Here is the input.
Amino acid sequence: MSIPKLEFPPFHLPPEAEALRVDVRAFLKETLPLVATEDRFPSWNTRSPEFSRALGRKGWIGITWPKQYGGSEKSFLERYVVTEELLGNGAPAGAHWVADRQSGPLLLRFGSEEQRQAILPRITAGECYFSIGMSEPDSGSDLASVRTRAEPVPGGFRVNGTKVWTSGAHHNHYCIALVRTSGQHGDRHKGLSQLLVDLKTPNVTIRPIINLAGRHDWNEVTFNDAFIPESCLIGNEGDGWLQVTSELAFERSGPERFMQNFYVLRELVRVLGRQPAKRASAVLGRLIARLWTLRQMSVAVAGMMQGGKSPAIEAALVKDLGTIYQQDLPEVARTIAESDATTEEDMADFLDVAQYATMIAPSYTIQGGTTQVLRGIVARGLGLR
Amino acid sequence: MDRETRDMLLETAERFFTERCGRDVINGVEKGVWPEDLWRDIEEMGLPLIAVPEDKGGAGGTLLDMLALLRVAASHAVPVPLAETALANLLVAAADGEPKPGPTALALGSLTLTGGRVNGKVERVPFAGVADRFVVVAGQGLAVVPSGNARIDATPSHAGEPYGTVRFDNAVAEYSAASPVNAERAFELAAVMRAMQMAGAADRVLATVVEYCKQRVQFGRPISTFQAIQQMLAELTSCVAATIASAEAAARDADEGGLPTGGSFSIAAAKSQGSEFAQRINAIAHQSMGAMGFTHEHVLHHYTRRLWVWRRDFGSETFWGAKIGAAYAKAGPDALWASLSGSKYAA
Here is the structure.
């Protein structure tokens, strides 16, 4: 058989990671009741600078980074445990999430020493937040088609163009923008670079894009002859494509791809009561079994990454399955709750939660690579294209 | 069994099954032809004794070694009760008995065992029609009942394997003893066994379908070059991956946690997951292969039909889902994450 062997070797998180889990749980139990948030069910995109700073004080942001930049030099697997505990316990980790997950690691790998020293310690302290500057109005799944242009000028770049779906740009300090620094629009992967953009830069305008649920998470970020100093170029001019794809790997493989709406499952358990009928139990149990499987797969991927492998196909499979699970969850939960919720009061409350989760659910299979793009990656792995 | 020995055994088994479990043998069993030579050679290789201690004539392998072998066997649709016999032999040896040669079936259900006599009925017993004996686990006891002492109504499975309803009416056991594995646990071990077999079959379905789509030419090019097909095969891959990953994790947990109790929750979750995705796997596989895959001549149905049967063997997704759901509901929402992240029924 010519197709690559599909394996997710079962992996145990090591004792130091499990020990850290105990500490993280204790911290969250103590801290979460004290943190006020605007969301009834906080998750990875609920912002609380207060919470992020508290987490930073524990050394749990940028946990894998070198100590000289404020990191704790712990393993990727310990980071995994922190991440899943934040999600499993509904911590409002949105402010620092992108900085911790991808912007910091990107700067660590490709950034200049000056950039690292200036920014990484502020991220680990839970005080410095990042937005992703990839998508544009004409550039979604086809990221190589970005049009934002950074023209070299003395001392830096003059930038013109528009980024969209820029989550948190109205709160955050920086955005890492993928821009064209040389060549033509049709050059695709060549001539792209990444710039570290201070979102307070003159001629950078941030306007809200309200999503269908009425929330202001997204923004449109417009560059109108904005001057970005040369010192803000990340890595080498022209290496933007290579860098951005490594950034996407960080974005795809984490437990946030199947635990974003964990609160729905939790609320379902509550609303079904302590002794649901067999049918309701079976529906609940099947959902739990799917989530458990996703966690086994994700931990296996983490184990492979810790072992120095780059399981890109496996990560794509986890995101594909995980985001579809997240879309199924509110719908399956709603239908079983409609027949099996224990009291009418609980039911009304739960439907409210499920309805909100249903409205948010279409985003899961779009952000971080659409299902169809991911399946294209898997198809390439199968040797079909 | 060390890693190297196991890998060697699995490679040998892979070659043997490739050579010996062709379409004709599998179709023969469906027509009621027992492949005597195949079974004899499987026994000569010692495969049914893989997880029996060396001092009882076995290979001294672990539960995990056995499950790994059964995954390989299932990827060839081996149409004899290797899985059932291997697990039965493990159970007999664990209850201080001596495993005997010959195809053996597992009768697990609501049975009673008192004074060396078994009573009760079990439906859909795999390979009941060809077994020399039944290994029964009832309560805390194990019994070995010669098939002549039971009443068997043969009802072949939808995959054409000799399943049947088995009735024990004060049936005399040739061996009975206290068992470290109770009835509920024996059912769990059978479930993880099937889950691993489903992983093997699902893997083979994927390989078969991908190969076919690369070769099948329509509209002047291999159909694998069409995006519509690529998207289907990628989804198939994700379902197969989930089946494999859940089964392997459960097998690991069952093995590490010890024979009497290990990995209870993981087994339930894996069998629920595998059984739930079997339908999607089969649906995509058959859609991708069109009419070709729907013929009896093609081998695809050897695997898809087994998946459809196996998802119901030893607990379907409804059975295991209900068990998980009831336990999690009882423990309440505050225990949910701790239980799930600990692979436990209740934290």
